[in-house]
Write a structure and sequence with these properties.
Radius of gyration: 22 Å
Number of strands: 20
Helix content: under 10%
Number of helices: 3
Shape: globular
Structural class: mainly beta
Order of helices and strands: HEHEEEEEEEHEEEEEEEEEEEE
Length: 434
């Protein structure tokens, strides 16, 4: 394990000792006001577990990141705190407190989330400390706050080639981790069994709720090409737990005002070393795989996208081959406001999405409408029954200016898990960043 303070001092020693002619201290904020309303009806099992037939609740919160950025030439120091606070009267019933906006105890919180030193060396950037990272395997998981990671980040960019690697040994979860269903073993679905909102814990404790002596995790992301035509490879290695490999390719075909963009991908996960995760599952192996594809059509400002994914199953594997995804609830391209089930074993997932880009009072906006279908087979590993999960949603985002944007979305979902028969969710939020 590395000592974060020593690495910050090391980075400082790599910088010039000469006085800088360019020095600035600026605020660095990413704040939002959220309104969220939910209406749930429980299944037969849910009525037994929850001792009620339905639940209606809402939350209004304010939160995000606030701090400063101090820059001197190619050297930057960032210090930020993150948290949330409720702006409506809190219910005395815990079930009516919208957990994904608060800490593990469903309370307001604030903590030191970002503290890092960054240095630019020509085409290379080095960053040491508590920081954010975002790709498909290690994600922000953003709701009000984001996942935060403590480690060393390095990236290199040259022409069409981009590569970054990030070693981390501690994790603090975003508020959205509290989405974990009634059974905390569902922590595979993007969060980890030992997650702590607003508190840094070791990688092994985050994943398994046990603090094993491991060497942390390293994620790498390599892209060759531009935004429209590229090959991308991502890999996440967690010492003595698992390795996840993700490869995808995208091609953009242009015919005048008409664009066709096919994309294909494959994800594979296997255990490595001691495989501590298997200790809770009769020492079974970790072996999961998923194929993904999408086809996007665009004519001027109007577009449609069809996505398809298929995951395998193996009864000799942990959770029958469901992916272990403790750092990302974005593992897979098919994701809705309330669902993200494509990486569950024995699942066929489909999404049809249509949208349009337009202006509202000269402000750039996008409107989406989507239907998502998950056919979860009986060999899914999370329950002993099949599940027919559906979600439909609409989404509107308007960029008011370069610092301010407004988002409104409404979704209707059925059979999110084995205790929820249907769930309606409305969210509206205003986000300001500087």
């Amino acid at each position: 394990m590395f000592k974060i303070k020593k690495n910050i001092l090391l980075l400082i020693s790599l910088t010039s000792l000469e006085a800088s002619e360019s020095f600035s201290i600026l605020p660095k904020v990413d704040l939002a006001i959220f309104f969220d309303e939910n209406d749930k009806n429980y299944s037969s099992l849910g009525k037994i577990v929850k001792q009620k037939e339905s639940l209606n609740y809402s939350s209004s919160v304010f939160g995000g990141d606030v701090g400063i950025s101090a820059k001197s030439d190619d050297l930057e120091f960032v210090l930020q705190g993150s948290g949330t606070t409720s702006i409506q009267n809190r219910s005395k019933d815990d079930e009516k407190i919208n957990a994904p906006y608060f800490d593990n105890d469903r309370k307001d919180f604030f903590y030191l989330s970002n503290i890092y030193l960054s240095k630019q060396f020509d085409d290379v950037n080095l960053k040491i400390g508590r920081q954010k990272y975002n790709n498909e395997l290690v994600n922000l998981n953003k709701r009000v706050t984001t996942n935060q990671y403590e480690g060393i980040y390095l990236d290199y960019k040259k022409d069409l080639f981009k590569i970054n690697s990030f070693y981390f040994d501690k994790v603090a979860s975003s508020t959205v981790a509290n989405n974990v269903p009634f059974n905390h073993n569902y922590g595979v679905m993007g969060y980890g069994k030992g997650y702590k909102v607003g508190e840094f814990v070791s990688v092994s404790e985050h994943i398994s709720n046990k603090d094993y002596d491991i060497n942390g995790a390293i994620v790498s992301d390599i892209t060759y090409g531009d935004l429209n035509n590229n090959i991308n490879i991502q890999n996440l290695y967690v010492d003595d737990f698992f390795d996840t490999f993700d490869i995808s390719s995208k091609l953009n075909l242009v015919y005048g005002d008409f664009n066709i963009t096919p994309r294909i991908g494959y994800i594979k996960q296997v255990d490595v070393g001691e495989n501590y995760y298997s200790y809770d599952y009769n020492h079974k192996k970790i072996d999961a795989s998923m194929y993904q594809s999408s086809l996007r059509f665009r004519y001027k400002d109007v577009f449609t996208t069809f996505k398809y994914a298929s995951s395998s199953s193996d009864k000799d594997s942990v959770l029958n081959g469901t992916f272990i995804s403790p750092f990302s609830n974005k593992l897979g391209w098919i994701i809705g406001p309330q669902t993200g089930h494509s990486f569950i074993a024995d699942t066929i997932s489909k999404e049809f999405l249509a949208g349009v880009n337009f202006d509202i009072f000269s402000k750039k906006s996008v409107f989406l409408i989507s239907s998502i279908y998950y056919d979860i087979g009986a060999n899914n590993g999370l329950s002993n029954r099949s599940l027919d999960t559906r979600e439909k949603y609409i989404y509107l985002n308007t960029i008011v200016n370069k610092n301010l944007n407004l988002t409104i979305q409404y979704s209707i979902a059925k059979n999110i898990d084995i205790i929820t028969e249907d769930s309606d969710n409305f969210r509206a939020y205003i986000n300001y960043n500087f």
